[in-house]
């Protein structure tokens, strides 16, 4: 089946970057609710960015060991928010909201993806990321050849992607979606509309080139 690769751009902070991502064909935009991140947003800032999204572009709220009240406030304030858990949350922490969510997994040689999938039966997807110092957004690629297990629902390929390597990632992993943050930044935490456009164009070109 020919299947286009969905695109998530993570860690947006500026309206111009949101608009560029939407125009370039992004399917989902990540809003970071983790105060220690250079990409962190207040709820107010996140609401203003989410209000710019047209139908069928999904706002994704990224949390790292957040207090339940913080998740609840974001769910109340941003209609259609998809949750992404990127910390040490248990399956119970992720599922208590009764809402679709993405579970980030740092892929190491010993990572058992099937076990992760079994522990998160209600996750929409596993978001496969590189192990980094801290929790994510580190711009590091993990060893894609570790992905020998197929999981019973979609995966999002993440970690160190950019316009130059995303086609290889799509060919090797055949993910449902790709996710990028550092690879569309001109300096840490500062997105570039031009790099966002280049990344999306590279995904579209990879899809056009591959029989999937
Ligand atoms: O973006 C952050 O600063 C961040 C902080 C803490 C946990 C996760 C974070 N980002 C998660 C993402 O979804 C990133 O897009 C993903 O880790 C890939 O990042 P990158 O390797 O920089 O493309």
From TrEMBL:
It comes from Inhella inkyongensis. GO terms for molecular function: phosphoribosylanthranilate isomerase activity. The gene is trpF. Residues 7-200 form the N-(5'phosphoribosyl) anthranilate isomerase (PRAI) domain. GO terms for biological process: L-tryptophan biosynthetic process. Its EC number is 5.3.1.24. Keywords: Amino-acid biosynthesis, Aromatic amino acid biosynthesis, Isomerase, Tryptophan biosynthesis. It catalyses: N-(5-phospho-beta-D-ribosyl)anthranilate = 1-(2-carboxyphenylamino)-1-deoxy-D-ribulose 5-phosphate. This is N-(5'-phosphoribosyl)anthranilate isomerase. Belongs to the TrpF family. The keyword Isomerase applies. Pathway: Amino-acid biosynthesis; L-tryptophan biosynthesis; L-tryptophan from chorismate: step 3/5.
């Amino acid at each position: 089946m020919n299947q286009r690769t969905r695109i998530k751009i993570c860690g947006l902070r500026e309206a111009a970057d949101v608009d560029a991502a939407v125009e370039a064909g992004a399917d989902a935009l990540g809003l970071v609710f983790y105060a220690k991140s250079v990409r962190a947003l207040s709820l107010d800032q996140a609401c203003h960015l989410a209000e710019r999204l047209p139908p069928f572009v999904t706002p994704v709220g990224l949390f790292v060991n957040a207090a339940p009240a913080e998740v609840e406030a974001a769910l109340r304030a941003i209609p259609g928010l998809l949750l992404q858990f990127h910390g040490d949350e248990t399956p119970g922490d992720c599922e208590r909201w009764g809402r679709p969510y993405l579970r980030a997994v740092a892929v190491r040689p010993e990572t058992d993806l099937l076990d992760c999938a079994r522990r998160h039966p209600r996750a929409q997807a596993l978001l496969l990321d590189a192990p980094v110092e801290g929790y994510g957004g580190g711009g590091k690629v993990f060893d894609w050849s570790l992905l020998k297990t197929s999981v019973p629902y979609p995966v999002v390929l993440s970690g160190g992607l950019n316009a130059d390597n995303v086609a290889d990632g799509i060919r090797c992993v055949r993910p449902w979606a790709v996710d990028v943050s550092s690879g569309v930044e001109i300096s840490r935490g500062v997105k570039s509309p031009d790099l966002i456009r280049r990344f999306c164009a590279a995904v579209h070109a990879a899809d056009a080139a591959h029989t999937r």
